[in-house]
Amino acid sequence: MRTLTLPVMLATSLALTAPAPAQDLGDVIGGIADSLLQQEMDKQAYIAAQNANTAAAYQNYLKKYPKGAYRVNAERALARLGAPVEGTAEAAALAEARLGITTAQKVAVQRELTRLGYPTGGSDGVWGRNTRTAIASWQRDRKETATGYVTEAQLKLLAKSVVVTPPVDDTPSGTLTAAEIEAALKLTRTQRTTIQKQLTVLGYDAGVADGLWGSKTRIAIKGWQKANKKTQTGYVTAAQVKLIGSQAGSATPAPSPAPTNAAALEESLLELTLAERVDLQRRLTRLGYDPARTDGTFGAGTRRAIGEWQADEGEPVTGYLTADQVRLIRVETGG
Q1: 261: which DSSP letter?
Q2: pLDDT at position 26, please?
Q3: Burial environment of residue 260 by CB neighbours within 10 A (0 to 12, 13 to 18, 19 or more)
Q4: Which of 110, 78, 106, 105 is nearest to 91 (CA)?
Q5: pTM (predicted TM-score)
Q6: Which of 8, 10, 4, 5 is nearest to 28 (CA)?
């Protein structure tokens, strides 16, 4: 893709701009230049985040450009990395979980909210839909972000009669338990079923692949974690889910290179060169989808990466690319 330099873009924009009075010409030029410069800075900041491909990098981009052109892509990348987007309900939920709120504190918060005119439907220490709605309404009236989850400062304010102390457990301060980390992934039933099948393929019997993770699945996870020199918790992290999928893909036969369906036939008609295939594999990696290798051969790892990308983009999941999807991948990675 040919990249327009700022001077050329500016000249083009001016050519399309209706004639302006002489005294306003400087303002017009300055405004267009500022706009183009901001667009370029936005693009370069996103490319830098892609190259780093870390949660911190994408979060930093979103802080600088909360309404940037690549905001949605950055948020999707964070989701793939298992990191919440700051300011979202998910991030607020994780932050609240780290507080280790006791039952006594929860009861105190419910009573205080009810006293203030925000009914919680009871003061039993169980924060269900009514309590979350009450918290959100209270936050909104205070001109604060209405997430339905309390911050440490809000907890201290609402639980006045109960001393708020840091949580005491077996995990370092400010961290989540293994179960909480897995819960934050919000794995679907289908995803859990897939992981059970992958573990079994790798030699760790997870039992019936039904998406219900009982003792057999937990033992299988621990066995895999031990073999891969991970902490044996029986609960998976985002990185471990990705690694299990990668290993299982390598353990299964790669699909036949000959087109076997309409999607495969469509991709074959693109006649992608070896260099183009390598480039696409590298771009998928930058987007957070691991093709396992970048040698121009679209094997099981690449097909899986394409399928994951298609799912996140809301495209039909085939594992094979169309011309429009090739262009979209290039656009998402800076052209």
Answers
A1: S
A2: 63
A3: exposed
A4: 78
A5: 0.34
A6: 10
**Structure token pair of residue 183:** 């819960």
Give the burial class of 106: count Cβ atoms within 10 A of its Cβ; 0-12 exposed, 13-18 middle, 19 or more buried: buried
What the block records as the tokens of 129 is 């839909």
Q: How many CB atoms lie within 10 A of CB 325?
A: 20
Distance, CA of 182 to CA of 236 (rounded, Å): 6
Sign of CA dihedral 75, 225, 186, 154: negative
**Number of Cβ within a 10 Å radius of residue 24:** 10
The answer to whether 234 and 222 have CB atoms below 8 angstroms apart is: yes
* Euclidean distance between CA atoms 237 and 93, whole angstroms: 17
- Nearest 5°: CA angle at 135, between 131 and 137? 115
Cβ distance 222 to 268 under 8 Å?
Answer: no
Residue type, 175: T
The helix (run of H) or strand (run of E) holding residue 54 is none
Phi, psi dihedral angles at 123 (to 5 degrees): -125, 70
Mean pLDDT (10-residue bins), the chain, 335 residues: 48 51 62 78 86 79 83 75 65 80 86 90 84 92 90 88 47 60 83 90 86 88 90 90 85 42 82 90 91 88 90 87 91 85
Distance (Å, rounded) from C-alpha 7 to C-alpha 9? 5
189-201 and 215-227 are packed helices; what angle lies between their axes, rounded to 10 degrees?
50
Q: Which residues contact 16 (CB under 8 A, 6 or more apart)?
A: none
Residue 50 CA to residue 270 CA, distance in Å, equals 27
Buried-exposed string 35-64: b where 16+ CB fall within 10 A, e elsewhere: ebeeeeebbebbbebbeeeebebbbbbbee
User: Mind giving me the DSSP string for 118-173?
Assistant: ---S--SS---HHHHHHHHHHHHHTTS---SS--HHHHHHH-TTS------SSS-T
Q: What sign does the CA torsion over 200, 205, 208, 214 have? A: negative
Query: Tokens in use for 107?
Result: 């009861």
